[in-house]
Amino acid sequence: EVQLVESGGGLVQPGGSLRLSCTASGFTFSFYWMSWVRQAPGKGLEWVANIRTDGNDNQYVDSVKGRFTISRDNAKNLLYLQMSSLRVDDTAFYYCARDHVGGYFDLWGRGTLVTVSS
Amino acid sequence: DTQMTQSPSTLSASVGDGVSITCRASQSISSRLAWYQQKPGKAPNLLIYEASSLQNGVPSRFSGSGSGTEFTLTISSLQPDDFATYYCQQYNDFKTFGQGTKLEIK
After folding, report:
1. N or C, where is chain A less crowded by C-beta within 10 Å?
2. What is the C-alpha to C-alpha distance for residues A65 and A67, in angstroms, rounded to an integer?
3. A71-87 confidence digits (pLDDT tens)
4. Partner-chain contact B97 A44, CB within 8 Å
């Protein structure tokens, strides 16, 4: 089955760190760009970051630059998002998404909730 | 950055109605626009890409049109499963989403 499954969400204090993982299956992971997209509870969607097929190029939304790092392990079919200096406004569901070469998202995971609170 | 503005924010309609949702870009994005449907507690689902191409498996009652700065998602005859929130997304200049349109049952 073609799917993406996120893990690693949870409760973290402001200023803390967390690493999210996304496990891909059912397709050739190394052929695709990948992205993280987030959604604060009850709010709209926000693209966070993406990464090229070989892992050597990535882009970030301005609000997370210098705090978040996207990476991947093609041998293990894994995508990561390392988050540091977390803020209350980083609270959201974080979705892993397959980033079609054109830049749209044709496969999504179910999401993992990150709550930043003291 | 390219900003995306959807209208209306909320739309009330009945089963069988035809409806349209508009998405406007702050600058030209050619045809680099996608539409998604999201139901409560679920991940978004791709409906349309390249402004008017229907994603595999999406019913033909969904269609997209437009180019440049103005785009439309049309649902020709609403089914009960279509009541959800819809988002547009541009991918010409990084990636940004519209704020969403909630389609409610009248």
Report:
1. N
2. 5
3. 999 999 999 999 999 99
4. yes
